[in-house]
Amino acid sequence: MVYSLGYRRPSRVSSRDSISGAEKTRSINESITSGSSGMSHGIPEPLSFDRIIAGGVCPPCTVREFMNYLKYIELSAENLQFFLWYRDYVKRFNELPETEKALSPEWTSQDVEGDNQPRPRRVSPETAAVFNGTDFANEPKVHENEKSNPFFTPPRTPNSDHKRDGSSSDSFDDTMTSTGGRVDHTERATGAFETAGLKWKPLSVQPYREEIARIISIYIADSGTRQLNLSSKERTNLLHALQNTTHPSAFHEVITTVEWSLRCQAHPNFIRWTICNGNRPRVIFARGLGVGGIVGGFIAAIIITLSSASRAWRVLSIIGFLIGISTLIAAWKGMCVVLHGMHHRHLRPWELFASDDEPTGIDMKGDSFDSLDSANSYEDEPWVAKYEKRNVVRKVFDREVWIQEPALRQIQDTIFLQAILGAFILSAVIVGIFCAFPKGNYF
Question: Transmembrane region positions (predicted)?
Answer without folding.
Answer: 284-306, 313-332, 415-437
